[in-house]
Write a structure and sequence with these properties.
With about 130 residues, the protein is of the alpha+beta class.
Length: about 130
């Protein structure tokens, strides 16, 4: 039922009428959240890897070690264009611990360039 309420706009009018007859209405908060998520730009794998390397570099510079706890989220600042064209500094929290664990698990699939980027920051897996 939650999916129908959140995806109200995607339902056919006949489907909406049937749900309304059952007493089910659109959940405006869920609809707004779904629209906001759809409006977010999707990051490519290369962009996501670059974010991970930047977060790792920031962590290593600050902490002076590579022991990143699995639940650690590293705050990253990015400059984005605002609605009026002005520059906004947006802070996102990158799941660095999870990302680093995933890179280790998938290290056989990383390119030599990606492995070199990680090695620049002291990451070496046997």
């Amino acid at each position: 039922m939650r999916a129908q309420r959140a995806g109200w706009a995607e339902l056919d009018q006949e489907q909406r009428d049937l749900l309304t007859a059952l007493g089910i209405e659109a959940d405006q908060e869920l609809v707004a959240a779904r629209q906001a998520a759809a409006a977010k730009p999707k990051a490519s794998r290369a962009d996501r890897f670059a974010q991970g390397v930047a977060a790792l570099a920031q962590f290593v510079d600050r902490e002076q070690h590579l022991r990143v706890p699995r639940p650690h989220k590293e705050p990253l600042e990015a400059v984005e264009a605002g609605p009026g064209g002005e520059e906004l500094v947006v802070v996102s929290h990158f799941a660095l611990g999870t990302w680093l664990n995933n890179q280790k698990a998938r290290r056989a699939k990383l390119t030599p360039g990606q492995l070199a980027q990680l090695a620049e920051h002291g990451v070496e897996w046997a």
